[in-house]
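Contributing new records

If you add data, match the layout below exactly. Sequence lines come first and carry their own label; structure lines follow with theirs. Keep one chain per record. Anything else will be rejected by the validation script.
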Amino acid sequence: MNPLTTKWLTLVLFFCSTSALSAQVSTEKYASDYLNSIRDNRAQLTAFFQQMPKGGDLHHHYSGSVYAETYFDFVVHADFWVNIQTLEIFDKIDAEAAANKDIKKFSTFKSLDEIRYRILRYWSDKDYHFDDIAPDKHFFDAFEHFDLASKRMQNEGILEIKQRAKAENVQYIESMFKSVKHGLNLDDLKPFTHKIDSFQTLKKTDSLFVILDTVYARLLRKGIVDKVLVHNQGIEKIHRDLMLDDANFTLRFLNSVNRVVPDPLVFFSNLLAAFISAERSDLILGVNIVAPEDNPISMHYYWYHMQLFKWCKKQFPKVKYTMHAGELTLGLVKPEDLTWHINAAVRDAGAYRIGHGVDLAYEDQVYDLLNLMRTQQVAVEINLSSNEFILNVKDDRHPISLYRAAKVPLVISTDDAGILRTNLTEQYVLLANRYPNISYAEIKQIIFNSVRFSFIKDEKMKMKMLNALQLQVAAFEDKLAKMLVKK
């Protein structure tokens, strides 16, 4: 090709790319202007965000994301028993329970309407009245109430979650699906519990790490890796058999570790198993710590838990983790307990993402903390419906404005869509409606953040997902612009 031809081709490509960019900017402006015109109309916002590609949901508990109706249909079909007074569910009963007139098989009901309504309310926030038990207790207790169903119908539940996500234009979910059960006998390690408690009280990190090194070596000799690999094989089989990935959707998992385990040695072994699992799987991407943060055990051992993550980061440098931190508010705990949890999660534990982060305004040296989170690009998983129901934190009480002003990366997520009876679309509706200063361009950034700050290990795969999302958003904007021009 001669130089003149090359010059003309370069000019043509330049003008074509400039034209394409101009068109994209133009359609983005249509979308932005239209969004601003409907900020106060929840129905129009819902239609807008239902159609808009939303990327990923990064703060997602599997069992709390399946709707109560699905769990109810399962226990009815399985013909389990229910205590009509307590609403406790049984898959089998003994002779004493069989003699209890309050315990009935579902097949014996002439009509299921009343018991269905009561159970749906018991297992979710449906028609919840705030003069009932405290909303945070109602929320967290629900997991135990539907636990039997959620464990028995995991295949059906995860498929429901996938289909619902695809129907509302969600391309990716990172779900806390299962905890790792290593099943090892730890009786011979119990003498270490006293030492751990002592170092927790004295806040002696170096001495604690020596103990952790020793316990780790003993657990390796006990065969913890082999136990974990069995767990991984089960997860991988579910993913493969259900064909959870397709051309337009990807699902990955996080291991969750319950932080209200009263024995610090048992907790460490569970956390260690979770890290080993995530290190050795392409489908299990990381670790999270779960259960109420204000629980007395969680509060007592919070420093210890953060040190464990710090230790694990040295042992498993490739494993990423997020954690529920700062899911607290004034009145839920003492004021002094609001001052350090996010700081410890970021500074000590080295979290890659933070879930909730609601008590931010009370944290010590809050502006230094925000600057650190921005510098280190520690994203915050914002859960608007969850924070409103559990903590009564919403509107300008929510610290999203503080994170945004400090340019800390944000992602929007559902937390437990089934219990809260919400979806990702509604979370964006709340975002756009409650915080009109957050522009359309920023909302797009948040959507792309949900892939950028995912824990996907394959960078090529992540880039492919981002490129596909870019095309999907552009197509949405183009379709919207054409609709508005016709009007």
